[in-house]
Amino acid sequence: MTRSTRAIIILGHGSRVPGANASMLQVTSLLKEKYGYPIVEVCNMSRLGPYLGDALETCIEAGATDIMVIPYFLHEGLHMRLDIPRMMQEYALQYPHIRFVFGKNLGFDESLVDLVQRRIVESEHLGDVRDLMLPGEDQYPIPPGQHEFVGMTPDDARQWRQRNGEE
To answer: What distance in Å separates the CA atoms of residue 17 and residue 24, rounded to the nearest whole number?
Structure first.
C-alpha cells in the first residue's frame, strides 16, 4: 500500500471529562506534521467519543484502503486483548477491500523511564494532595456508581493470577 492510502487511527480509552484527550490530539497533529501521514484520526473506546466506528468511517470516506489502529494504551487489558480486535473484525467484515491492522499499543519502551523521571522532577514543587480543590461531580456526566474503584479481594486476585500462570 502507498502511504497516500494508509490511515492511522490513534485510539484512546475515553473520558467523561471534555478535553481530556488533548494530549492525544497533539500526538495526532504531530504525526501528520512530522511524518506526513495524510489521514490521521483520533477516537475513544467509550465515554464522550468520537468512537472507533466514527474514525473508521472518516478514514474510509477519505479513501483509505489500509487502516492501522494504534491503541493509546500502556497496558494489555481486556480492551487490547478482546474489545478492540473484536470491533475491528466486525468492521473488516463490512469492508473486505480494506486492510485493517490492529497495531501495537504504547506498552513498555525504555523511553518511558525517562518520561516518568521528567514527570517526577516536574512534580517536585507540587503541594500536598489535601490542598487540591476538586471540581464538583455535577460538572461531569457521571452516572451513579460509575466513578468508584472496582477492586478484587486479595484472595480473588491471587486465585486469578494462579489460574493464569502469573504466580
So the answer is: 14
Q: What is the pLDDT of residue 22?
A: 92
The Cα 35–Cα 94 span in angstroms is 30
Instruction: Quickly state the pLDDT bin for 1 (edges 50, 70, 90).
Output: very low
Query: What does the alpha-carbon distance between residue 118 and residue 106 come to, in Å, rounded to a whole number?
Result: 18
**Phi, psi dihedral angles at 69 (to 5 degrees):** -100, 120
Q: Residue 47 region, left (φ>0) first, then alpha (ψ -120 to 50), else beta?
A: left
Q: What count of other Cβ atoms lies within 10 Å of the Cβ of residue 4? A: 13
CA distance 31 to 40: 8
Q: Which helix (H) or strand (E) holds 122?
A: helix 111-123
Residue-wise pLDDT for 110-124, tens only, equals 999 999 999 999 999
Sign of the Cα torsion 33, 37, 38, 44 reads negative
In this predicted structure, what is the pLDDT of residue 118?
97
Q: Could you tell me the CA-to-CA distances from 125 to 72, 121, 128, 135 in Å, in that order? A: 28, 8, 10, 22
Report, as residue numbers or ranges, the catalytic residues: 13
pLDDT range class, residue 146, cuts 50, 70, 90? low
